[in-house]
Design goal:
This protein is mainly alpha-helical and 168 residues long. The chain contains 7 helices and 2 strands. The N and C termini lie far apart (39 Å).
């Protein structure tokens, strides 16, 4: 498989990881981490109006479009985006299972939190290398299980809470 195709597949897996993380966070309250405010209620009311069949504001699914920018508006990016936290924790898990991985300079950089090394270069080759390690060689179901397992136990470092409790 050529490098460009491998990078594309890694990007797709990261996107799917994001979707899994978002679906895992859903609870009875559709926006559980939002304060009970007028903007929250307005959003919930809007979604209800446009998704209720036979309602005057109903929009068929094929005509709906939602665009989200993961720039800290859906979940915190500080100290790093959740997806990167998953990758780093997954590298640690894999290195524990396979200690020989730590001989690789990029794995070593990830284990030591050396972001300068990981993100050096125009294409961030070091980070792409650890993405290849943590996001390939498994089925979608296996990847989903890994993400869900991580999400169930990982702690958001600034608050010591679960990542689900840190979403907006």
């Amino acid at each position: 498989m050529n490098a460009e195709k491998e990078r594309f597949l890694m990007a797709i897996r990261l996107f799917l990881c994001s979707l899994v993380l978002m679906s895992v966070t859903q609870a009875e309250d559709l926006l559980p981490s939002w304060a009970e405010t007028a903007p929250k209620q307005a959003i919930l009311d809007f979604v209800e109006r446009v998704s209720t069949p036979n309602g005057k504001d109903f929009v068929p699914e094929q005509n709906r479009l939602a665009v989200f920018d993961n720039d800290g508006t859906l979940w915190p990016e500080c100290p790093m985006p959740f997806q990167i936290a998953f990758v780093l924790d997954e590298v640690k898990r894999l290195a524990t299972e396979q200690p020989e991985l730590a001989k690789n300079p990029m794995i070593k950089a990830a284990l030591e939190g050396d972001f300068k090394a990981l993100f050096a270069g125009e294409k961030h080759d070091g980070f792409m290398e650890i993405m290849a390690l943590t996001h390939s060689g498994m089925t979608s179901d296996e990847f989903s299980k890994r993400v869900k397992s991580w999400f169930a136990t990982a702690k958001y470092p600034l608050r010591g809470t679960s990542y689900g409790e840190a979403t907006y």
